[in-house]
Inverse folding.
């Protein structure tokens, strides 16, 4: 492993993000969905419209596996596929109203958990965290 202290902190932070995300979402995911299907819906919710290849890349899944999961989610009425008017080979994938309602309910429950974790913080501490998240988004996690 790299001896750079910043790199070590980044690795520890990344692992902690994965763990806390798992902890906060493990029992709020609808039972009708597999964990992979939920992650796909979550990704679409924050990035829509997206393409099959974008989902495949983000989920680190093969295109056929991604396509199969999208078909299942579409059959459940959770997704909408729209053909791009400029490039008819390209489809944008978005949440259907039912899919959006499902994700909104999950996010509402997760937001309650986040609120519980930060309830003890002062307003200044909350602003510091918000600023730190903005910096991470702008400088590290930009797409």
């Amino acid at each position: 492993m790299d001896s750079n202290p910043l790199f070590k902190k980044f690795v520890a932070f990344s692992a902690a993000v994965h763990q806390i995300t798992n902890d906060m979402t493990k029992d709020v995911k609808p039972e009708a969905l597999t964990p992979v299907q939920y992650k796909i819906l979550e990704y679409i919710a924050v990035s829509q419209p997206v393409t099959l290849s974008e989902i495949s890349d983000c989920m680190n899944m093969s295109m056929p596996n991604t396509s199969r999961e999208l078909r299942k989610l579409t059959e459940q009425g959770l997704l909408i596929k729209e053909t791009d008017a400029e490039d008819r080979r390209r489809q944008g994938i978005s949440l259907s109203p039912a899919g959006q309602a499902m994700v909104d309910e999950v996010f509402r429950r997760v937001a309650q958990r986040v609120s519980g974790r930060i309830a003890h913080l002062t307003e200044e501490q909350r602003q510091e965290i918000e600023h730190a998240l903005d910096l991470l988004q702008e400088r590290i996690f930009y797409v």
User: Anything to note?
Assistant: The radius of gyration is 18 Å. The domain at 27-139 is CATH 1.10.10.10 (Arc Repressor Mutant, subunit A). The first strand starts at residue 79 and ends at 83. The chain has six helices and two strands.
